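User: what does the whole thing look like in 3D?
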Amino acid sequence: MENNEHLFVVSVYSENQVGLLGAIANAFTRRSLNIETLNVEPSEFEGVHRFTFKTRTTLDKVESIVKHIEKKVDVLKAFYYVDNEYLVKEHDILASYIDKHKR
Amino acid sequence: MADQITDEQMFSGSEILLKSLIAEGVDTIFGYPGGQIMPTYDKLYDYQKELRHILVRHEQGAIHAAQGYARAKGIPGVVTVTSGPGATNVITGVADAMIDSTPVVVIAGQVATHLLGTDAFQETDVIGLTTPITKWSYQIRRVEDIQWAVARAFYIASTGRPGPVVLDFTATAQKGKAAFNYEKCNFIRSYHPYPEIEEKAVRKAAKMINEAKKPFLVFGQGIILSGAEKELQALVEKGEIPCASTLLGLSALPDGFPLYKGMVGMHGNIAPNVMTQECDLLIAVGMRFDDRVTGNTATYAIQARKIHIDIDESEFNKVIPVDLGVLGDAKAVLPMITELIEKKPREDWGLTSTICDAVEKHRVIDPEIHPESGEIHMGEVVDTLAEVSGKNALIVTDVGQNQMLGARYSRFNQTRSMITSGGLGTMGFGLPAAIGAKVGRPDRQVCCLVGDGGIQMVIQELGTIMQERTGVKIVLLNNNWLGNVRMWQELFYDQRYSSTRMINPDYSQIASAYGIRYRMVDKREELREAVEEMLSDDMPYILETHVLEEGMVFPMIPPGKNVNEIMLNNDDWFDYGE
Ligand SMILES: Cc1ncc(C[n+]2csc(CCOP(=O)(O)OP(=O)(O)O)c2C)c(N)n1
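Assistant: Here's the predicted 3D structure for the full assembly of 681 residues, as C-alpha cells:
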C-alpha cells in the first residue's frame, strides 16, 4: 500500500438532494480527514450538482472514500485527482454516464 | 386527466402511505403510535384486514422485530413510529440493519413543515441523525411526494446490497390530500444495484482457481441475501474447494455438506482459521473481512492470492488488499466462474482439517457438550436443541456467549436459519428479532437463545408475545453474569470483575405475569426432556436453564492475534504437534 500523503481533489456529482452535503462531508470526518477547501455549485449538467473537496491523505484512503461516496444513492459519480492534475476529463465521463443511464 | 380527479378519488397522505405499502406487498407492520403519526394510525384502523399491526412495547422492539422478519423471510420489514423519542428509539436497530445489510423501511412521524426547525414538541432532526446509518433517508414534506418516496424506499432497501431506509413523514404530508396511482420504482439514474459483471474479471478468477493447489473459500451473508446457496454448492463441488462460513453466512450450506469446514473467526472452528493461513488462494464471497474474522490484518492469509467477490465495490481493498475484485451479484457471478473452472486434483490438505477437527473435538467440543459432571454447559443446551429439533429450528440469538455458543453448536438443514446481530453486536436484539422471525415464518420453529443480560434489555417484549400469541421458544441461558464481558475480564483484565455480576429476578414469576409457559432446568438429566416439551407445540415458552456460571467460549483467537493463534482453554494454545 502507498503511504505518502498528497493533497487530493475529490469531486462529486450528485442529484440535487437536501442533506447530501452533510452525508458526503461525513465520509471525510469518519476517517478523521480534514477538508481543506470545499466548493458546491451547479454543474454544467442539468439538475446535477458538483461538490469539490480538497483533502490531504494517502491514495488508499482517498480511493476508499471515493468508492464510499459513490455508493450513496443520490451520487452519480465521484472522482479524485492529485491536486494539480488536469480536471477536464470529468466532463466527458459525466456526459457519457448521463447518456448511458437514461431510462 | 389529473384535473379531472374528483373529491372521492382524493386520499389523505396517511391513506396514500398505507395504500402504497399494500401495493409493495406489505401485510405486517411493527410499530408504536404517538402524536405525529396519529393521522396514519387513525387510517390504519380502516386497514386492519390488509395490514396487521404488531404493537411492540418499545420502539427498539419494533425495529429489531422488523429485522428478524426481514431476515427470516427475505423481504423488507416495515416499522412505524412517532417523531422525537419514537424515532430516536429505533436508532440502534437502524444502525444494526445498516451494518448487517438488512432491508427495513422505517416510517417515522414528524412535526408539520411550518414547525420544522423551531424545536417544536417532539421534533428531532431525524434525517441528520439517521443519514450515516441508512442506505437512504428522506423527509416527506408534501403529500404529492409520498408515493414516489415509498416506491424508492422499497426499491433501495431491497435491491443490491440491502439496507435500512428511513422516511421522515411530516404531519403536513400525512394530512394533505392527493390522488393515488402507485408506480413501483425500478430505476434511479444514480443507483445501480446490480452492476454489470465484467467477463474479464470472471475469466481471471477462474484462471486463478485453476492454477491454485490449495484454494479455500470463505462466504458470508451475501450468499443468503443473493439466494445463491445452490450456486455456491455447485462451485465448490466442481472445484473441490473446501469452504467455511462467517457468522452471518451460517445455514447457507446444510449441516454435513462434505466440503464445509465450519465457521471462521474469533470463536470459529480451528480448521478453517488454520486453513486461511495455509491456502494458496483465498476466495471471499459476500463477506467483508470484519476484524472478528481476520484477527491481525497484517498477517491474514498473507501467503495467499486473494479474490473478493461482492456486490459492493467499496468493500474491495477496504480491509484486506486483494489481487482481484469481481463485482456483481453472487447468484450471477458464481455460475459464470463455475462454468470456467476445471475439475482438478488438488494437493491433499485434507489432513490439515482432520488434525484440527480432532484436536477441537477432543479438547474443546466434547468437554463443552458432553461434560460428565457439574452444572449444565451453555453449549450442551444448544447442542440438545439442535438434536431435538432435528436441525430444523430457526435460531435467533442475542449477543454474548449465548450467541457464540449458539453459532458453534447449532446445526442447520435449511438456509435463513440463523439470525444474529453480527456487525453491531446489539444486546437486546434477540427476543424482538425472534418475534419478528416467527411472525414472518409461522411455519417454522423459532428459538431464541438469550442471556440473562440480553433478555432484560428488552424483557417488556414478553408483552408483545402475550398479546400476539407469538409462538417463540425462548431459551434463557442464565449464568448470573454478563457472561461474555466476565470472560474477557477473566482472560484479559486480571479477573477484576467490574460490574458484570448480575442479580436476576425470579423469571418464573415474570413468565407467569405474562401468561407464558415456563420451566426451569438445572439438572443434566432433565435437559433433553425439557427441550422436547418446549418444542412439542406451537405456543410461546420460556425454558430457563441454569448454566455453569463461569463458562467460557473456546476456541478463541484473542483480539489482534493471527487467525492461527488459537486458545483451546485458559492455558493452552492450539499446536499442530499434538
Ligand atoms: C447494547 C449493548 N451493550 C453492551 C454490550 C457489551 N456486551 C457484549 S456481551 C455482554 C454480556 C452479555 O451478557 P448476557 O446477556 O448475560 O449473555 P452471556 O454472554 O452471558 O451469554 C455485554 C455487556 C453489547 N454488546 N450491547
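In plain terms: The mean pLDDT of chain B is 97. The pocket of thiamine diphosphate is lined by residues B 398-402, 425-428, 451-454, 477, 479, 481-485 (CB under 6 Å).
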